[in-house]
Design brief:
The complex is a heterodimer of chains A (79) and B (334). Chain A contains 3 helices and no strands. With 79 residues, chain A is an all-alpha fold. Chain B has 10 helices and 13 strands. The chains are: A mainly alpha (79), B alpha/beta (334).
Chain lengths: 79, 334
C-alpha cells in the first residue's frame, strides 16, 4: 500500500480511535461509521498532515480508503 | 501602564426556568438522546416561555452582573443579540431603563454567535476613547423564537439564555484587563447562517407570506469547518498579541456551539482538551450568551481560577469571529 494510505489509516487511528488492523483498503468511511461531521474533522486533519488544501467535497462517505488515498495523492502532485 | 484599559470586574447570568431534555425533543421530532449527544454533545437546553422577550433575559443577567461588580451604575450598555425584542428600535435602551440606569448610552451589536466578543470590543473601545468609565456588556438571545419547530438539528442545538459582564476603566497590568481584541468577518459566507425573510432584502408582507422563510437556517458542515479554522486561528493571534505561547494558555473559553467543534479547535491549536471547559452539555448553544454563561460555569466548577491566562473566542453568522485575552480576575459570579 502507498504511504499515503498508511498515513490516512494513521489519521483514522489518531483522530477517531479506529485500530489500523480493523480497516481494509476497500472499507468506506460510511462502513467505518464516520458521520458527515467526522468527514469534516478528517478533512481538517488531513489538510494539516499532507500540507494540502481540501474542499468539503473531496472526501465522500461512500469513498473507499484506497479512493480517498488517491484523492490525497492527486492533491500532492505539483503541476 | 496607561489608564483606559477595560477591566472585567463583574459577571452575571440568567437562564429561563424551563429545561428541555433530549428525550423531550425525541417525543416531538425524529431524533434521540444518542443522536443528539453523539453529534453535538448537548443534553439539555432552556427555553423561555412565549411571554418572555430577549430584554427580560438581558435585564436579569445585567442585574446580576452589576451585583457581582458591587455597583448599581454604569455609563453605557452594549447588548449583543440576534433576537432583539423588535426589529426597531434596539433593545439595549429598554434594558438600560429597566435596570434603572437612567439615560446612559445604550445600543445593540449584531454579530450572531460572535456578538459577545464584538460587544466586549465595543465596550472596551468606549472606555479607551474616554466616552465611558464603565460599561455593562450583555449577550442575550432567545433562539426559541426563530427556530423552525420542525427542524430537528437547530431545535437540538440552540437554547435561550443571557450573560453579562461589567467593564471598568483601569490599568492594563491588573487582573481582568482585556488584551487587544481580534475581530474578523467574511460576508461571502453570509448565506451559511441566516434568517432569510423579514429584513429589507425580503420583507415579510402579506402577499409573499407563502414563499417566506422566517426561520433560522444553518449549513452545518460548512459552519463546522469554518468555526474550527477561524476560532483556532484568531485565538492564536490574540494569544500572540498578549505575548503568550500555546503552553501559556490556561483556559480557552470558546463559543459553546458543538462539543466536536470545541475538541477539533483545541486539537488544531495543540491545546489539551481539558483546558477548553465545556458548558454546552447543560445549556446548548445560547448564541451571544454562551461565553459569559461558560465563564460563570467554569468559575463555579473551579475550572477557571483567578490568574488563569484566558482566551475567549467565538465564531458565528456573518460570518464573524473574534478572540480576546485576559488574566482571570478574582470575582464571584451572580
Amino acid at each position: 500500500m502507498s504511504s499515503t494510505y498508511d498515513r490516512l489509516v494513521g489519521l483514522l487511528a489518531k483522530s477517531f480511535g479506529i485500530e489500523p488492523d480493523e480497516v481494509a483498503p476497500e472499507d468506506t468511511f460510511e462502513s467505518l461509521e464516520l458521520d458527515s461531521l467526522a468527514l469534516v474533522e478528517l478533512t481538517l486533519v488531513a489538510q494539516e498532515e499532507f500540507g494540502i488544501s481540501l474542499t468539503d467535497d473531496d472526501l465522500h462517505a461512500k469513498s473507499s480508503l484506497t479512493e480517498a488515498a488517491g484523492v490525497l495523492d492527486a492533491k500532492q502532485v505539483t503541476v | 501602564m496607561s489608564a483606559g484599559a477595560a477591566v472585567l470586574c463583574g459577571l452575571g447570568t440568567w437562564l429561563p426556568p424551563n429545561a428541555v431534555t433530549n428525550d423531550d425533543l425525541a417525543r416531538e421530532l425524529d431524533t434521540s438522546d444518542e443522536w443528539i449527544r453523539s453529534r453535538t454533545g448537548i443534553g439539555t437546553r432552556y427555553v423561555a416561555d412565549p411571554s418572555t422577550a430577549t430584554s427580560d433575559l438581558a435585564v436579569e443577567a445585567g442585574r446580576r452582573a452589576l451585583k457581582s461588580a458591587g455597583t448599581e451604575s454604569v455609563d453605557a450598555v452594549v447588548l449583543a443579540t440576534t433576537t432583539p425584542d423588535r426589529l426597531c428600535p434596539a433593545t439595549a435602551p429598554l434594558v438600560a431603563a429597566q435596570l434603572g440606569l437612567g439615560t446612559v448610552a445604550a445600543f445593540d451589536v449584531g454579530a450572531v454567535c460572535t456578538g459577545f466578543l464584538y460587544a466586549l470590543a465595543a465596550g472596551a473601545g468606549l472606555i479607551a476613547a474616554g466616552t465611558s468609565d464603565s460599561v455593562l456588556v450583555i449577550g442575550a438571545d432567545m433562539y426559541s423564537g426563530i427556530l423552525d419547530p420542525a427542524d430537528r438539528s437547530t431545535r437540538a442545538i440552540f437554547g435561550d439564555g443571557a450573560g453579562a459582564v461589567v467593564l471598568r476603566s483601569g490599568d492594563a497590568g491588573e487582573p481582568g484587563a482585556l488584551g487587544r481584541p481580534v475581530l474578523g468577518s467574511d460576508g461571502t459566507g453570509s448565506d451559511l447562517i441566516s434568517v432569510r425573510s423579514g429584513g429589507s432584502r425580503e420583507p415579510l408582507r402579506a402577499h409573499t407570506a407563502d414563499e417566506a422563510d422566517p426561520y433560522f437556517r444553518m449549513a452545518g458542515k460548512a459552519v463546522f469547518r469554518n468555526a474550527v479554522e477561524r476560532m483556532a486561528e484568531v485565538s492564536l493571534t490574540a494569544a500572540q498579541r498578549a505575548g503568550w505561547e500555546i503552553g501559556d494558555i490556561d483556559r480557552l473559553i470558546a463559543h459553546q456551539a458543538n462539543l466536536r467543534i470545541l475538541h477539533a479547535t483545541a486539537d488544531r491549536m495543540r491545546l489539551p482538551r481539558h483546558r477548553c471547559p465545556v458548558h454546552l452539555d447543560r445549556v446548548g448553544n445560547t448564541a451571544a450568551a454562551s461565553i459569559p454563561l461558560a465563564l460563570s460555569h467554569a468559575v463555579t466548577t473551579g475550572e477557571l481560577l483567578p490568574g488563569h491566562r484566558t482566551v475567549l473566542t467565538a465564531f458565528g453568522g456573518g460570518l464573524t469571529w473574534g478572540a480576546c485575552t485576559l488574566r482571570w480576575p478574582a470575582l464571584t459570579p451572580a
